């Protein structure tokens, strides 16, 4: 696996401090991150497919909405995830919203240990091995990882 260091985010004049998109590798800690943000007063929409993100953002930031800070969590369970999510970011940008993208990652070894601990299969494992699923997911998420503002290594 390559280094987990931060990738350079695309140049932005403005990042909306009230909108964060959380994504990353299965087993890297999206649920824990969502729970922490909820404790800090964020409204968290968990497991939202990319097709619904735009509508959720629109509803959340209407004038009469009580939501002040929105975190959207999404993952690979939506099959066309990576391309769709990049399109959502582009559409948000076109409408003047610039979400902070947080990508959670961990070493392959840490992800394998976490899946073994909970005795779950990887969502992209299919009939292959756990490592096959991790490799498929890394490939699918590379484009959104490259566009992330923050890449957080949750290995330790």
Describe this structure in a few short sentences:
The chain has 5 helices and 5 strands. With 156 residues, the chain is an alpha/beta fold.
Keywords:
single chain, alpha/beta, 5 strands, disordered N terminus, 5 helices, globular, about 40% helix, 5-stranded parallel beta sheet, about 160 residues
Number of helices: 5
Question: In angstroms, what is the radius of gyration?
Answer: 15 Å
Largest sheet, described in full?
5 strands, parallel
Return residue spans where pLDDT drops below 50 for at least 5 consecutive residues: 1-11
Could you report the average pLDDT, rounded to the nearest whole number?
Answer: 85
Described by the principal axes of the CA atoms, the overall outline is: globular
Proportion in helices:
40-55%
Which range does the strand content fall in? 5-15%
Number of strands: 5
Please explain how this structure is put together.
The chain has 156 residues and is α/β, with parallel strands linked by helices. It has 5 helices and 5 strands, in the order βαβαβαβααβ. The protein has helices at 30-39, 50-60, 81-94, 108-118, 130-146, and strands at residues 19-24, 43-45, 70-73, 100-105, 150-153. It has a 5-stranded parallel sheet, sandwiched between helices. Helix 2 (50-60) links the parallel strand 2 and strand 3. Helix 2 runs parallel beside helix 3 and helix 3 (81-94) packs parallel to helix 5. The protein is globular and about 50 Å long.
List the helices and strands and how they pair.
Blueprint (H helix, E strand, L loop, with lengths): L18 E6 L5 H10 L3 E3 L4 H11 L9 E4 L7 H14 L5 E6 L2 H11 L11 H17 L3 E4 L3
Parallel strand pairs: 1-3, 1-4, 2-3, 4-5
């Amino acid at each position: 696996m390559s280094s987990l260091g931060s990738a350079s985010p695309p140049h932005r004049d403005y990042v909306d401090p009230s909108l964060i998109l959380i994504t990353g590798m299965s087993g890297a800690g999206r649920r824990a991150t969502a729970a922490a943000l909820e404790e800090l007063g964020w409204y968290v929409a968990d497991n939202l497919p990319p097709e619904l993100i735009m509508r959720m953002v629109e509803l959340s930031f209407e004038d009469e909405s009580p939501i002040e800070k929105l975190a959207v969590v999404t993952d690979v369970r939506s099959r066309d995830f990576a391309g769709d999510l990049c399109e959502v970011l582009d559409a948000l940008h076109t409408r003047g919203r610039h979400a902070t993208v947080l990508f959670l990652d961990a070493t392959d070894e840490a992800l394998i240990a976490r899946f073994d601990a909970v005795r779950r299969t990887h969502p992209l494992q299919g009939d292959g091995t756990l490592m096959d699923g991790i490799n498929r997911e890394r490939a699918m998420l590379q484009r959104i990882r490259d566009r992330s503002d923050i890449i957080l290594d949750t290995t330790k």
